[in-house]
Amino acid sequence: MPEEQINLFELSGPQASAPPAGFDPDLIPTDVKVPVPSGTYQTMADLAQHCNQCHRCGLGATRTHAVVGRGNLQAPIMIVGEAPGQNEDETGLPFVGRAGQLLEKILESVKLDSEKDVFICNINKCRPPGNRTPSIEEAEACKPYLLEQIRMVDPKLILLTGATAVKSLTGDKRGITKIRGDWLEWEGRLCMPILHPAYLLRNQSRQPGSPKWLMWQDIQKVRAKLDEILTGSA
Ligand code: URA
């Protein structure tokens, strides 16, 4: 793709317009050197199609399905996980295994509906073999898809589950136990780092200070902030 054509895509935000005529979207996902500029996708379905053809990193070679997202495409809350596991790779849907079932319960506990109030996705759309943490290069290769998802859904709040999600999106390298539960601003958007549900599964205690207890504090803060935003703009 010629340089001049790439420069035409330097658009950002929800108002980014359609890619110019002559742009061949089939060229995008085949190599990490080919950029995926803001405004590339008009719909999540188009993005999903590319993710399923994508070989911007090596994870494309072993996927069954790219795992793009589930929930409301206009949700006020976006939840961003790390990467699909086996259940997600098999079904093509994020957070459908044990961690996902716990996530559903956490949302229900503050009356958030996973089909109406949230859109759930991951930093990486393809499963890393053996469920290892995605490498920095793999996260970077996939990041344009996430940025497009954020632009299209335009959520009021973003929840980042675990340190890898926080670091990959915002560059903040602090430990999750230090930063969880505090709002941070990224690109003008309110984000909250929260513990990863899989971490809660390994720690069953509900005592004050335990992972489950901390999650309960954090999700209540999220509910309160959403109510504040919805009431303020009513
Ligand atoms: N863990 C994640 O981070 N994402 C999923 O989709 C499933 C488990």
Question: How would you describe the overall organization of this protein?
Answer:
The chain has 234 residues and is α/β, with parallel strands linked by helices. It has a single domain, classed as Uracil-DNA glycosylase-like domain (Uracil-DNA Glycosylase, subunit E), CATH 3.40.470. Helix content is 38%, strand content 11%. It has a six-stranded mixed sheet, with helices on both faces. The longest helix is centred in the last third of the chain and has 22 residues. Uracil binds next to helix 4.
Helix/strand order: HHEEHHEHEHHEEHH
* Shape category: globular
Q: How would you classify the quaternary structure? A: single chain
Mind telling me the C-alpha Rg?
18 Å
Specify the CATH architecture: 3-Layer(aba) Sandwich
Tell me the helix content: 25-40%
Short description:
This protein is of the alpha/beta class and 234 residues long. It is 38% helix and 11% strand. The protein has a six-stranded mixed beta sheet, sandwiched between helices.
